[in-house]
Structures are given as structure tokens and as C-alpha cells.
């Protein structure tokens, strides 16, 4: 038995179970062999597990301790810069107009194809550093800026390498069906994804999920279904970008194929919410995307009414350039009306369900010790103090991985 860490003197420790947040005041957390051995009253915990005996004694006096964030939807691996599109959007250009002119995703595809593996790896590692400093301990990363077999495989290999090199856990998703490459027809490209890319991705053996951009002008429902069903035939679990820019039917498709999550849902209806909840598909909201597009936010109420475990993610990508789950939580509260406790649950335990890591994002006894110490008295301060990073210390599986500096 190794006493990895004792986090003591906390003003509040938050654990997240099926029934929501539980807060302990004047509390401590003891970590043994990478797992939470005890959470509770500071006096009792530190008598049983003296901080002086621990590899890391973390002084959390006056602070709150939360489960590490799980960011279940990102496109964090890419090359190039699209900050000029940010300015164009502010002048009134739409996302679809930019894409139709060969900008947007297609521009990132050109830059990513040209970048060597080392550049791609350095880019991803630097984003993971920033995410970790913001309290994220598990993140999903999609391929999808290759749109050809060679670059898609290269992206997945870089994602796998970053996972091995970095303390943040990385969940790999294949998204060859992220856009239709320039000068290609959607049906022909879907055939390439199904007949060429997916078998190669399965043979490579890295990807866990297969995702598709089910959207007007990108992949329709039939094409998206083909991709997700072929992915399943190759052992990849479906995920779907659904109802992001229009209402097309991605949610119903996600429910039918038993996707782990359906993401975006800006234009989802009550029926969509019910179908997803009935099928056990986790709804993932990406309020940063609505923020960056200047669009209407998704309505979480039908999903909450249906009893679904609503999750929140950053959607970090060149169009939505935020790596901060704290900011996503703040937007979920202010713009989507989630209560702070609901938003924190959405960013931790429920987000973990969206990537099928049910043991993460909980901080309950017997679960992995992924936690963030924030310089504030309670979890409410995470969304309340928007636009700032309150995270001071992060433990991943009980290891000290951030204390003002990333340790990797
Ligand atoms: O989730 N919707 C498609 N993919 C991303 C955007 C990617 C990009 O613009 O580069 C999204 O919003
Ligand atoms: Fe996305």
C-alpha cells in the first residue's frame, strides 16, 4: 500500500454520484494506490492518513476540491491558424459560407496534411498542457482533419502517442467523416471512409469511437448511418454530431445505432431528447460552439426532463478556440440555465459517461484519484468566476501532475 497523497483542510470537497453532487465541508481526501481511499471530515481522514506520511501533502485550506474535469468532445489535434475567420464571422460571415469557400475545416485539413508528425504531436501536447492546467484530466480527441487514409491514421497515431506521453488520459475517436474533401462527392467519399479508411483504422487498432458530422450540406442521415454502422462492424462505438447547424435527424440516428453520445443538439426537439434518453445515449452540449458562432444555445430542459445525464464539453477546435472546461461550465449556467451543481456534474461524471469511463469524474471512495484543487471556497465559484482559471493543483490517478507547472 502506498499513501500517494492527502489533500487536507479543504473548505469543500465535491464528489459526484448518480444522484448528483455531494459536498463535504472542512474535509480531506486520502489517496492510496491511485484511488480515493477516504473522503470526509478532515480530522478523521488525517488521523487515519497523516499528511506527513504521504508522497504529496496538498494544503487545500480555504479551497474547494473537485473531480478532475472530463472533456468528452474535442478536435484538439490540428495544424494552422484560423483566427482570421473569427474576425470574418464577427463581420457577419457564416460558418457554412466559410466552409463553402474552402475555409473552415477544409483549410485545417490542408494545414494538417502538410504538418509533420512532430509538429502535430507538439501541438497536441501543448493543448493538453493547457487543459490540464485548467483542471481537465481526461479528454476525447477526434481525428478528422486528414480526410484521407494516410493522414487519418497519422492523426490517430499522434493521439495515441500523446496519450502515452501526457498525464491527461486521451480517448481516441476516428472522424474520417468530418467533412467532404474538396472536389469530392459525399457518396463517393463515404464509400472511401467505409471501404478504405475504416478497415485501415481497425487494423491500426487505436481508435475507440467512430464519429460523423451529420449535417445539412455535409453528411445526410443515410450517409451518416452507413459510416456509423460500418464503424461498428469494425469494432468502433458510434458517436454523432447531431443537430448542430440545422435539424436533420442525427439524434434519432444516434438513438437507433446505440451511440454512446450525441453531441451539439442546438436544434434538437423534445422527441429527440426522449429518443436519446430512452436509448441511453448521453447528450453532450457544447456551449462554446454557440458562443463562437454567435448562435442560439441548446435547450437542456427536455433532456433534463427526460432524465438524461446531460454532459458538457469544450468542442475545442480552430472554430471554437477554448480549452477551458471552466468556461464551458460558466456558459452552461448563464446561457443554458443549468444550476452550478448540475453544470459541474455535466463536466465531470456525466462527461465521463459520454466517453464510457464511468469510474472517472467522481472522486468517490474506490474511484481513481483525478482531482483539481481550486482557489475558491466552493464549486459554485467555478462558473461564478468566469473567464479566469481557479485551478491550482491537479492530481491524476493520485500523482501530482500540475501545481502551477505541468509535470510530464
Ligand atoms: O464540432 N462540426 C464539426 N466539427 C467541429 C468544427 C470543426 C472545425 O470547424 O474545424 C464542431 O463544431
Ligand atoms: Fe465537434
Describe the protein's architecture and organization.
This protein is an alpha/beta fold and 408 residues long. It has two domains: 3-67 and 362-402, Urease, subunit C, domain 1 (Roll); 69-353, TIM Barrel (Alpha-Beta Barrel), CATH 3.20.20.140. Helices cover 38% and strands 24% of the residues. The chain has 16 helices and 16 strands. Strands 1, 2, 3, 4, 5, 14, 15 and 16 form an eight-stranded mixed β-sheet that branches. Strand 7 (136-142), helix 6 (149-165) and strand 8 (169-177) form a beta-alpha-beta unit. Helix 7 runs parallel beside helix 8 and helix 9 (250-257) runs parallel beside helix 10 (270-279). The two termini are 24 Å apart. The mean pLDDT is 97. The structure holds N-(iminomethyl)-L-glutamic acid and fe (iii) ion (FE). Residues 73, 75, 241, 315 line the site of fe (iii) ion.
Short summary of the structure?
With about 400 residues, the protein is of the alpha/beta class. The chain has helices at about 40-50, 85-90, 95-100, 105-115, 115-135, 150-165, 185-205, 220-235, 250-255, 270-280, 285-295, 300-305, 325-335, 340-345, 350-355, 380-385; strands spanning about 5-15, 20-30, 35-40, 55-60, 65, 70, 135-140, 170-175, 210, 235-240, 260-265, 280-285, 310, 370-375, 390-395, 400. The chain folds into 2 domains: about 5-65 and about 360-400, Urease, subunit C, domain 1 (Roll); about 70-355, TIM Barrel.
Amino acid at each position: 500500500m502506498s499513501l500517494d497523497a492527502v489533500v487536507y483542510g479543504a473548505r469543500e470537497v465535491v464528489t459526484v454520484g448518480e444522484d448528483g453532487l455531494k459536498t463535504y465541508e472542512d474535509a480531506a481526501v486520502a489517496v492510496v494506490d491511485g484511488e480515493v481511499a477516504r473522503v470526509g471530515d478532515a480530522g478523521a481522514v488525517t488521523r487515519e492518513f497523516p499528511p506527513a506520511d504521504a508522497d504529496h501533502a496538498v494544503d487545500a485550506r480555504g479551497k474547494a476540491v473537485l473531480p478532475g474535469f472530463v472533456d468528452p468532445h474535442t478536435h484538439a489535434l490540428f495544424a494552422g491558424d484560423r483566427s482570421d475567420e473569427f474576425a470574418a464571422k464577427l463581420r457577419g460571415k457564416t460558418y457554412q459560407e466559410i466552409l463553402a469557400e474552402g475555409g473552415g475545416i477544409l483549410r485545417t485539413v490542408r494545414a494538417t496534411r502538410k504538418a509533420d508528425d512532430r509538429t502535430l504531436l507538439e501541438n497536441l501536447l501543448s493543448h493538453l498542457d493547457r487543459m490540464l492546467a485548467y483542471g481537465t484530466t481526461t479528454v476525447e480527441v477526434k481525428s478528422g482533419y486528414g480526410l484521407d487514409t494516410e493522414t487519418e491514421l497519422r492523426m490517430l497515431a499522434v493521439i495515441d502517442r500523446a496519450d502515452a506521453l501526457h498525464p491527461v488520459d486521451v480517448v481516441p475517436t476516428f472522424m474520417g467523416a468530418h467533412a467532404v474533401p474538396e472536389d469530392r462527392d459525399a457518396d463517393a467519399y463515404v464509400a472511401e471512409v467505409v471501404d478504405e479508411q475504416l478497415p485501415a483504422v481497425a487494423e491500426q487498432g487505436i481508435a475507440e469511437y467512430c464519429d460523423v458530422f451529420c449535417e445539412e450540406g455535409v453528411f445526410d442521415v443515410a450517409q451518416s448511418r452507413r459510416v456509423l454502422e460500418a464503424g461498428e462492424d469494425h469494432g468502433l462505438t458510434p458517436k454523432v454530431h447531431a443537430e448542430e447547424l440545422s435539424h436533420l435527424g442525427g439524434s434519432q440516428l444516434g438513438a437507433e445505432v446505440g451511440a454512446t453520445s450525441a453531441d451539439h443538439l442546438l436544434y434538437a426537439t423534445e422527441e429527440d431528447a426522449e429518443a436519446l434518453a430512452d436509448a441511453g445515449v448521453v447528450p453532450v452540449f457544447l456551449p462554446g460552439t454557440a458562443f463562437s458562432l454567435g448562435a442560439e444555445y441548446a435547450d437542456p430542459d427536455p433532456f433534463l426532463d427526460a432524465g438524461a445525464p446531460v454532459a458538457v464539453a469544450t468542442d475545442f477546435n480552430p472554430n471554437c478556440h477554448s480549452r477551458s472546461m471552466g468556461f464551458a461550465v460558466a456558459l452552461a449556467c448563464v446561457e443554458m440555465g443549468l444550476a452550478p451543481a448540475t453544470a459541474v456534474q455535466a463536466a465531470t461524471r456525466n462527461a465521463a459517461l459520454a466517453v464510457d469511463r464511468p469510474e472517472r469524474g467522481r472522486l468517490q471512495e474506490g474511484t481513481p484519484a483525478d482531482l483539481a484543487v481550486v482557489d475558491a471556497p466552493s464549486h459554485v465559484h467555478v462558473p461564478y468566476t468566469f473567464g479566469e482559471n481557479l485551478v491550482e493543483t491537479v492530481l491524476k490517478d493520485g500523482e501530482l501532475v500540475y501545481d502551477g507547472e505541468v509535470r510530464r
